[in-house]
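Quick one:
INPUT:
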């Protein structure tokens, strides 16, 4: 199996944009691609941190109690030869776990579910690109969590709809999902997941 260094010799334009933003620079018309070493040295974003603590805990408890797989935070997934993504939260099925080593990163293949928390700094085109990459690589669903808008946008992979199916769940409602979990019904009221903490 290829090592992390072998897998990535270049990082996508979105990472270069993040680096430029953090350094207060404007991107040139042609964005230079970061090396893998530069990517690994990127600092954590400071300022506002959006958390999914309660939602992650509920999802993890649900998945474990039904023996469906594993819920992981901040794990690299290799979606294509030169594409590695790191969702905020991911659900990996028991079947997928049999084919991978969680101690080796990036994990081969897409998670069944990728959850991304979207802040004002995320560009729409990058978010759309991520969704398409996850679904094209085999994810069954991508949940985009928008704390500022108090909603979750659910993108589902469907063979009968090109590009998948999209639905919105607002704060007063709950995410209701069973197809993704082999028929077991998962319910998560959105009011439990919108926690925003300002860091000093």
């Amino acid at each position: 199996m290829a090592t992390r260094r072998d897998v990535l010799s270049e990082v996508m334009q979105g990472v270069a944009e993040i680096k430029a933003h953090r350094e207060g620079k404007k991107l040139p018309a042609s964005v230079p691609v970061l090396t893998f070493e530069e990517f690994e040295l990127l600092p954590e974003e400071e300022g506002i941190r959006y958390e999914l603590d309660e939602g992650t805990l509920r999802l993890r408890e649900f998945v474990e109690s039904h023996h469906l797989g594993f819920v992981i935070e901040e794990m690299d997934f290799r979606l294509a030869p030169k594409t590695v993504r790191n969702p905020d939260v991911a659900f990996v099925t028991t079947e997928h776990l049999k084919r991978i080593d969680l101690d080796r990163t990036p994990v081969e293949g897409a998670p069944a579910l990728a959850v991304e928390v979207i802040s004002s700094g995320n560009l729409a085109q990058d978010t759309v690109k991520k969704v398409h990459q996850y679904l094209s690589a085999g994810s069954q669903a991508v949940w985009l969590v928008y704390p500022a808008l108090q909603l979750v946008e659910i993108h589902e992979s469907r063979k009968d709809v090109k590009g998948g199916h999209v639905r919105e769940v607002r704060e007063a409602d709950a995410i209701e999902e069973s197809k993704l979990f082999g028929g077991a019904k998962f319910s998560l009221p959105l009011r439990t997941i919108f926690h925003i903490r300002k860091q000093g």
